[in-house]
């Protein structure tokens, strides 16, 4: 009987493909929008993710998220280093500065200054050169998206709107009217801010920045192996009166800020809900109509001795097969979209949670539509079918 139920499902090709397309489209909307949302949120803490060395991040107590740089006094670094249990503590500078490009145009850039001695905080993946070039005078590192995007130069200087070429190693920038030589190109994770990122040393970064009393953006801390990180976190917070976060806490604080202070979750939530409603409206209705059209066959099987639980099991089997195929098609299409579009064009990150969420939505759609169909099958009287 199971094979008969599957043949019934595949036999009505119009409704079968309608069910599949409905489930696949619902899965595509749910999984794609969820993946874009997760990818967008992961960009908000890209700096934290690409700086794995520290155990703790020390920042100003009024800071709300990683890009909300609230400079501290430089004495904060020594205060952190004086806390017992700190293996090392290094400074980091982060701010938005205007760069003057070789063709004379200006571009807002995110400037990150890393520790002069250890270069902790420098980009981990280099495409051209190495992070050691930062030890050379007036040298900076740019990332690939900026190289071929906002920092790209016109091929013909007399036609600024014409074709552009990638800016290359050795070319000069100006930051606050100070010379900056591009010494290397890095491959970094896209950030939430759509501006190029420039890496340099901490001392050079504060020379590029406008003069101010507070220049220290963050302090990166490594705990001594003999001291628990949680204990050191409490010590630093108590003795310095600064905010201290683990990388995970800092990342979640950043995510929570963007989720609470912007309409991003609502917009994506509406799109995901629409995907679910599309599945209910299309796939659910098509599956219900499919069952109604095949009541005569269920009636014949019931007349031949098939019990009601057995018939309900056949309906459930049909729903399971359609749901599995629709889910697979939807997730496959979502993966193709994510792999096809470049990361700098689309924020896409499919974690293991997303297929489970999509599967849960499809299961709900299939179970709900099967339940309505089962009611008609359970109440079916074979005599009524044959009379009709």
What does this structure look like?
By secondary structure, this protein is an alpha+beta fold. It folds into two domains: 2-43 and 263-387, no CATH class; 56-245, no CATH class. The chain has helices spanning 2-11, 13-43, 46-49, 75-81, 144-148, 202-208, 229-240, 247-261, 264-293, 295-303, 308-340, 353-378, 382-387, and strands spanning 56-59, 86-100, 106-114, 126-128, 139-143, 153-154, 164-165, 172-175, 178-186, 197-201, 218-223, 243-245. Strands 2-3-10-5-9-8 form a six-stranded mixed β-barrel. The chain has a two-stranded antiparallel ribbon with strand order 6-7. The radius of gyration is 30 Å and the shape is elongated. The relative contact order is 0.20. The mean pLDDT is 87.
